[in-house]
Here is the input.
Amino acid sequence: MDIDRYERTWIFLSAAVLIALMLALTYSIYGLDIRLIGDAGQVDPAFVTQRPPFDQPGVYEEGPGRYRVVMIARAWSFQPAEVRLPAGAEVTFQVTSLDVIHGFRVPYTTINQMIVPGQVSEIRYRFDEPGEHALFCHEYCGVGHHVMEGRIIVEPPTTPAAAH
Amino acid sequence: MNPQPHPQPPTDDAPARELSSLYRPDSLHIRCFIYISFVLLALGGVFGTLQALDKMGVDLYQFLPGNLELYYMGLTAHGVVLALLFTGTFIIGFLSLAVVHGLQRPLADRGLAWATLAVAVTGTVALLVTIFRNQATVLFTFYAPLKAHPGFYAGLVLVALATWMAALNAWLTWRAWKRDHPHERTPLMAFAALCTWAMWFLASLGLAVALLVYLLPWSLGDEAQVNHLLTRALFWLTGHPLVYFWLLPAYLSWYTMLPAQVGGRLFSESLARLVFLLFVVLSTPTGLHHMYVDPGVAHGFKVLHGVMTYAVIFPSLVTAFTVVASVEEGARRRGGRGYIMWLLALPWLSNPSVAGQLLGMLIFAMGGITGLINSSLNMNLVVHNTLWVVGHLHTQVAGAVTLTFMAISYWLVPFLSGRELWGRKWAVFQVWSWFFGTAIMARGMHWMGLASAPRRTFLTYAPYAERFSEWHWGGVLTAAGGVILFISGGVFLFVMLRTIFGRRLAQPMTVPEAQPLMEPGAMPRWLDRISPWFALGLALSAAAWLPSLWRMAAEYPTMPGFQLW
Here is the structure.
């Protein structure tokens, strides 16, 4: 097969750029540990609200500066709808859905997640600055999809710990 | 401008104006597919404009009668009608012509061709009826456990079946041709069409299983529960290569027709074949990148699909060289000079079919870069399910694919109908306005998406939207682009209508077919066979998908259905 000289150069350059990008991507994942959500276990969708941890949604202090937020998404709300956390705390959200697939998005953060019934989404994050964050569903879930929202309030670290 | 010769007074049996007997047996059903696609483009486009205005906070739905006021019903119609039906019907018609012309023989089975049309129309009607009766407001991705009317899933089955029937007819035609020409290489135009069908057949297996094994029995009540994560994964097994099913017919035109339209030759036929074959292999093991942020999907497979998505960019990079080099050769023959200035020798303002395809390529290159960003797992966290992704999709489908299909129509419809193209200047205005409309709208969507605006959301009434002032100007651009596209689409349909019911052709037309610049004499035989590449694609797809799918099918919880609209 005869390939023009310039074209061959272009092909090699294209392949080289793509291979470099593949390596950069792989390095960012396994070298820098930028992880996507993987597998955080399953729950029986028929009994979500009767078994731990989703029988009692809320904010739990797990240790010094460590919090766990157990949350349920349903058409068309999050429970709890308001989460208060101290700035700088390491927080793990555990979220599942009672009905259809929902989204879990906190703008301007890397919190960007699907919430699937029967599956647990586990999201780790640290809010460093006090302030208020929107939280909304970004996967179509029926006619009320656009009103499905919550709110995350990050308080200065001096205030007493999270509300329950 | 050259003085136009006066058209001859039409005489009804002048052989020059008649479609050659090669195309006559298939002309009518091909035209039916093409014209149906235009009607669908109009229908889906209207809803697109309303959605674009919503991004600026303008709600026109409230003025519409009956069901039509429902935003998410219109959104479902927009996606199904444009992404599945408009593209599908145009592609069936266009690829049929490519097979007929490429192999220089009519389709093998004309009965099958008409049956294909009947099945496609029945499926389309089933989809439209269930959608507009508000029985299937599940968007074009129909993620379970949202549960639509069985007629919706049955309509999808029929439309998919129609594509398989068209593929079968193409293959039968090739087999008959091969029997008559055992030692000849399959001509490139037909080869490209066959590769497109092979790629699509492999890719559509996921959708077929999702619909026939899971969704249809569940919606009929035969099954109480559905495995929603599995059907979602099966949707994306087909859903991502669906994009290449839209794209490859455009590539077919860029490689095998456009060079002839600018007076040039195809730079390298061997590489053109390699590109189409690589799409057969690489298109399907990529779709998990749509599920990067899904729980219950193993991380390692997300990385694998991300890497494979980069690999499928390779044939497009080769295309960028070969197609541009072919066009450049034509431009130089037209008197173009210099490293860059040869571009000015192309008929940007006089030939709407050429200008539309060149502009489509330009916007496709932009969308390729945003596609690289989407497929990078880490950056995807910023843009996943935001309007950024919608902007990317529209550069590729509304921009590259639809603009190329419109540009093809500017010669295809006159050719098949035997009518002179009406309003050439309007057509030139149309392709440029479509280009700018798509670019402006996509710019607005990318902007909003980077500021976290969610996709597929009735933003006018979203309570949180007012807190994001940074969405404002992106919304204005999105709406402005949407209105430009609405006008441009209207001009397209008007030009087509005036052409179809217009004056008969004064001169006979031929299908543009590019000759190779270099004799592909030494072309290896493995570039003329599809089946080994298909087998390789099947093996790669099985390795990339089956472990995840198996685990979902065996272990994951199921759900009853919900109708939340």
